[in-house]
Design brief:
The chain is of the alpha+beta class. The chain folds into 2 domains: 6-97, Beta Barrel (OB fold (Dihydrolipoamide Acetyltransferase, E2P)), CATH 2.40.50; 118-420, 2-Layer Sandwich (BirA Bifunctional Protein, domain 2). It is 31% helix and 25% strand. It has 13 helices and 16 strands. It has an 8-stranded mixed beta sheet. It has a 5-stranded mixed β-barrel with strand order 1-2-3-5-4. A 3-stranded antiparallel beta sheet has the order 7-9-8, with no helix packed on it. Strand 8 (171-174) and strand 9 form a beta hairpin. It is elongated, with a radius of gyration of 26 Å. The structure holds 4-amino-1,4-dioxobutan-2-aminium adenosine-5'-monophosphate. 4-amino-1,4-dioxobutan-2-aminium adenosine-5'-monophosphate binds next to strand 11, strand 15, strand 16 and helix 13. This is Asparagine--tRNA ligase.
Length: 432
């Protein structure tokens, strides 16, 4: 007899099959038991009818507790009443492993309790849906860059330098030398772009951010493309095509997960329409000031209410371009006609989800870069290799970083970034 996965039920209608899974929930009367089964691929219903199975099978079904693992045998049938569309008419149940007093019951639980039980919470249908969307975004990322001739490179995670600012670093001891967990792979991606033309990195990054918000993790995954001979304008086009591709891929391949989460798919479709609107930092400040935001003036970074207002104004992902030099890192160049701003953009997601991409053109020129490093108190010993890139055939280049969990949170339409990571790391949270 064939062992199948629930997700493949549509190919086995009318067949007797086996499924290995767990009891997510159960309802039973004297005559019939409905088992909510999950096997990791999907959730569906198993039906055990007293008059159709041996007595001990019905008794086993009635006695199953939440999260008992089982192998069930039965016939796959269409089930037009359920969203999933299929069920199994169970003929036999083999109990594989017992489960007693499972802590997460179908009733409501507080967030702290669920986070303490994250290793179990992951089993719920909601978490399953979110992780399916995360997985699709990862898959689509590889498809997007591989099909466009990018080479994936893996920057180191242990580094001796801190390009995005020293206050948010996790440090460790590296055989007697200070080392840091990487905040970004960008500088290494730049070196690799000079070797391979178009590259992307995709790996974990770490920031010791003390902010306890619904958008911040201390460990998150970042996708960082870097492109040689590419100026800012072309980079913005890659960014919007990439983000639209992610949304379209989730719409195409995660329909069920989006339904489980109650995500508005019509809204998501709007986010695949290009181009995305753009507004300069200067105009964004004007827009805010004209709309009664008195708490921000030119030179300040945006807070979350500001980003939300700007995004709502456009109802689509929006690029905010040319931020003041003072609030951006050392590697961003200024345009020829102004030295108070830099050639960069952040992409702000709609619906209050905040920044999902930060990117820029990169400064080049040996003397220029040396001066920038010195002005930012970055040691020429540590950054000698990076400075080298300006010695041997420097070219204009641009790149950006998309935060995976921010993208997952937004596209899934969930409230908080903690659910976008299987085992989130946040301020005061490193268990489980
Ligand atoms: O804007 P950021 O800091 O840019 C960089 O690190 C550049 N070096 C990227 C590059 O040009 N290669 O971060 C990029 C993105 C943000 O837009 C956000 O999506 C995500 O990383 N991010 C976070 N996600 C979750 N938790 C945090 N604490 C994050 N900080 C940044």
């Amino acid at each position: 007899m064939e062992r199948i996965r629930i997700i493949d039920s549509k190919d086995h209608v009318g067949e007797i099959v086996q499924i290995g899974g767990w009891i997510a929930n159960k309802r039973s009367s004297g005559k019939i038991a409905f088992l909510q089964l999950r096997d990791g691929s999907a959730f569906f219903q198993g039906v055990v009818v007293k008059t159709e199975v041996p007595e001990e099978v019905f008794n086993t079904a009635k006695g199953l507790s939440q999260e008992t693992s089982v192998i069930v045998t039965g016939e796959i049938r269409e089930d037009s009443r359920s969203k999933f569309g299929y069920e199994i008419g169970i003929q036999n149940i083999e109990v594989v492993g017992e489960s007693n007093d499972y802590p997460i019951t179908p009733k409501e639980h507080g967030t702290d309790f669920l986070m303490d039980n994250r290793h179990l919470w992951l089993r719920s249908s909601r978490q399953h849906a979110i992780m399916q969307i995360r997985n699709e975004i990862i898959r689509a990322t590889y498809e997007f860059y591989n099909s466009r001739g990018f080479t994936k490179i893996d920057p180191p995670i242990l580094t001796s330098s801190a390009p995005e600012g020293t206050t948010e670093l996790f440090s460790t001891d590296y055989f007697g030398q200070d080392a840091y967990l990487s905040q970004t792979g960008q500088l290494y991606a730049e070196a690799a772009a000079m070797a391979f033309g178009k590259v992307f990195s995709f790996g974990p990054t770490f920031r010791a951010e003390k902010s306890k918000t619904r958008r911040h993790l201390t460990e998150f995954w970042m996708i960082e493309p870097e492109m040689a001979f590419v100026k800012h304008e072309e980079s913005l086009q890659v960014q919007e095509q990439y983000v639209a591709f992610l949304v379209q891929s989730v719409l195409d391949n995660c329909d069920y997960a989006l339904d489980v989460l109650g995500r508005d798919k019509e809204l998501l479709k709007i986010y695949t329409e290009l181009p995305f609107p753009r507004i300069s930092y200067d105009d964004a400040i004007k827009l805010l000031n004209e709309n009664d935001f008195d708490d921000i003036t030119w030179g300040d970074d945006f807070g979350s209410p500001h980003e939300t207002f700007i995004a709502n104004h456009f109802s689509k992902p929006v690029f905010i371009t040319n931020y003041p030099k003072g609030i951006k890192p050392f590697y961003m160049p200024s345009p020829e006609d102004r030295d108070d701003v830099v050639i960069c953009a952040d992409l702000i997601a709609p619906e209050g989800y905040g920044e999902i991409i930060g990117g820029s053109e990169r400064a080049i020129g040996y003397d220029n870069m040396k001066q920038r490093l010195e002005e930012n108190n970055l040691s020429l010993d540590e950054y000698g290799w990076y400075l080298d890139l300006n010695k041997y055939g420097p070219v204009p280049h641009s790149g950006f970083g998309l935060g995976l969990e921010r993208a997952v949170t937004w596209i899934s339409g969930i409230e908080h970034i903690r659910e976008a990571s299987p085992f989130p790391r946040m301020l005061h949270r490193i268990y489980p």
